[in-house]
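Structure ticket #2291
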Amino acid sequence: MIKEKTAITVMASAPWFTEGTNSGVSSWYPHVWESHGYISTYVGGMGTGPSAPDGWAKFQPYLSQPGSYDIYVGFFACVDTSRRVPVTIGYADGEEVVLVDQFSETNQWIEQYLGRWNFDVGPDSYVEITDATGEFYDGTKGLTIGCVNFVRLGEFSTTVEKFSLVEAYDTFDHGLNVRSPNPCSDIVEEMADGSIGVIIEGPAYWDGQHRYRIRWENGVEGWSALSYLRERDFAPSTRFDIGDDVAVQNTGALGLQVRESPPNLASTGYHVFDGEKGTIVGGPFYGVPKGTGGLYHFWQVDFDGKRGWCAQGDTEDDYLAKIGDTD
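Resolution: structure written out below.
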């Protein structure tokens, strides 16, 4: 049985990655750009016409589990790469061709989401890129490919759940890798053991690991492997009860942000200011607000018909207080 490989680069061996030409004439050329390995070839296809493929590169994950997968491709883009590179997805119900725009005014590495398909196990699931762009060979224009990632979605039996408070642990001083914006993206941060965050989304399965999108206490957000996460206990706030009337305090000139529902907690752009009154209608939720950082207890408050989630306070000041108990 061939082992599953959901993260396939052009450095992988057969049967997961193969490349070649139908004519035996055109070639794939290896390159490295900012640590990303990739291969390139010219557009043009077969001599019979630019829409007949000659050069091809095929990625076969040999999936062990059927199901729904998100497909991402990584490639080098520049002014000389084609705007209509054909990528064929071989999935459970047949084939689908997606045209990828690889043109860029500046040299850059791009990770592009192609879509979501249902795949079967075994060799019939694949992603293939060819040089049949429909453009004639001119000795300049080409196409590139560096990797294909198959990210499995669905319900998994794991030890943590969405909205859980978790901490990084057992990384042996290496830190826990955080990938963004996708589960298969480059590493953007390493979180030390003991770092605390809140699960926002997941799980997704990629490269042998269940992964969750976590917003960490320092404000960093990205995907990390379950193997190095454990739930962190905390005591929920008992400061208020549903129906309590509260007033805003200690917020200064900036006021108190009213945020969207957990776990996202993004700013709505609406602020309330010291002295404004409202009623507790939901909560509590312990989490990290989007775009800032820090862990806070949040309550849903109705301010005269305007509802949103507000931080209870920080380590020094309370931002909400029961009417009659304000400072």
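Closing remark: The chain has a mean pLDDT of 93.
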